[in-house]
Amino acid sequence: MRDSVSGQYIAVIDLHIHSTASDGSFSPLQILHMAGEQGIEAISLTDHDTIEGVKELLDELSLSSVEFITGVEISCEPPSSFSHLGSIHLLGYGFSPYDRQLHDLLTQAQESRKQRNPKIISRLRELGIDISMEQVQQRFGDRMGRPHIAEYLKDTGVVDTFEQAFDKYLGKGKPAHVKKFKVSCQQAIKILLDAGGVPVLAHPGLLDFSGAKQMEDFIRTLVSFGLQGIEVYHTDNDTKIRRQLEKMAGKYKLLVTGGSDFHGDFTPGVKLGRGKDNIQVEFSVFRELAGRVAAIRRLHTRLDILEENLGHHFADRTLLENALCHRSYLNEHQKSCLSDNERLEFLGDAVLGLCVGHILMAESPSRKEGQLSRIRSSLVSEPALADMARSVDLGRFVKLGKGEAVSGGAQKNSILSDTFEAVIAAVYLDAGFDKVFDLVSDLFGPCMEKKLSGVDVVDYKSALQEHAQEVWSCVPVYSLTGESGPDHEKIFQVSLQVAHIATTGTGKTKKSAEQDAAQKALVIIKG
Fold first, then answer.
1. Reduced to 3 states, what is the DSSP secondary structure of residue 271?
2. Are residue 198 and residue 322 in the same domain, yes or no?
């Protein structure tokens, strides 16, 4: 991004952005494209009490040069001695999006939000305003909150401006205000840390402190809970506040972060990466944040969390530790593991195949061998096992060498599926077949039920890969060859090459374009 005064290039980031997943007007994918077009080097999507937008972006990041770190903004109750501050917002960065505690907290918040919206609509109707949930949802979709209701009130002429909707009806103390779900600051900080993330106090300059001393007392209290940073560079922080916050960050060894608090059309005048043309958060902030995330993960990657996710606590923890040791890590840390996990992977493949085969035989006595083999193959395919690994948040526990870690190895299907098989073998060696059979039954139950009922969505990529490996001993290669259309309606084109077959697929995402290309290849194969 070019500096507006000097004209020199500055590597700028934005760590505070909202999308349509909460109360922004642009979709997650639109924001990613906008960041790339505007020269923003790194972003974090920090929607209120949800990471659905983050999950949408994870499959699309390979298409963008913009660096990305997971994010969320959690609404919290302040400690009792600071109750006058009202709602406190904590930003979380770098956490695993598959952490179960965080998932449970955000699910609770979203359920509360769903119950809150009808109550707001009901109060507006009691005030004589012609509005319904259906009308607002038709305009904005199911993901709606107060900003969408405010925008609807403006569009229908009930108020003149977006801000007036809050000042007159929706703000705290106004007739249509409904209190939202909030978790304690202490609990939110703990959950973010346990998820491998970095908790940061959002826009402290907007809180109603009596003075600098009270602000410091509050920040010191949060530091005692485990706070790791404060948002110094925010579009609504003036120079005086920034200097106070920088001083406190240095005193308490806190990270300095910043962002625009971009909400798109819902906050006119606030621009992505620039705020009100008064912030330029440099890339060094992102590097320091990424470094703190790595340090937090080393401290908070507790294997008891993984054991809880698996439903098995190991009598011999070294089996689990060995199952998590990738060969790239062992190459760099020769004395850290007894061996890499490849022998366990070999055993786990056999154990998993036996367990899944046994369950299929019992659950589907009328199916023939060919049908059962195809179902088993789909259940234990690399993509399926990688998804199973994500369901227990396995990725952040895998020990990887530096190069593999930097390249995103913890989310690669090949590494996740292999490690999952190694963990299955570790459970078998630790507790025997009955235990591992029960564990596999619990984990695979829902997807197996879908497969057997015939309502599973067809995964053409997996089917093509299995055929290619079996018949030609190779794997399909997908390449992005083009994209067209405006940012909000991008169409991607992907080429596929496998053996002697070449096809082209299109879709609104890279993933859907790859599926389209794979489906066309399968049609050719079947003749």
1. strand
2. no
Give a yes or no: residue 321 inside a domain: yes
* Pairing assessment for the beta strands 229-234 and 198-201 based on DSSP bridges: parallel
State which of 253, 276, 298 marks the end of a domain.
Answer: 298
Residue 106 pLDDT greater than 70, yes or no: yes
Buried b (16+ CB within 10 A) or exposed e, 72-96: bbbbbbbbeebeebeebbbbbbbbb
Please list the active-site residues.
Answer: 349, 421
Query: Does residue 105 fall inside a structural domain?
Result: no
pLDDT for residue 8: 56
Provide the whole-model pTM. Answer: 0.76
Mean pLDDT of the region 239-260 = 95
How much is the pLDDT for 367?
Answer: 87
Q: Find, among 234, 262, 252, 196, the residue nearest to 28 by Cα.
A: 262
* 4 falls within a domain: no
Give the DSSP H or E segment for 77.
Answer: strand 71-77
In this structure, are strands 477-484 and 501-507 parallel, antiparallel, or unpaired?
unpaired
Place of tokens 């917002």: 89
* Gap between the terminal Cα atoms of the chain: 52
Phi (first) and psi of residue 302, to 5 degrees: -90, 125
Residues 381 and 394 placed together within one structural domain of the fold: yes
Q: Are 70 and 52 in contact (CB under 8 A)?
A: no
Angle made by CA atoms 361, 367, 370, in degrees to the nearest 5: 95
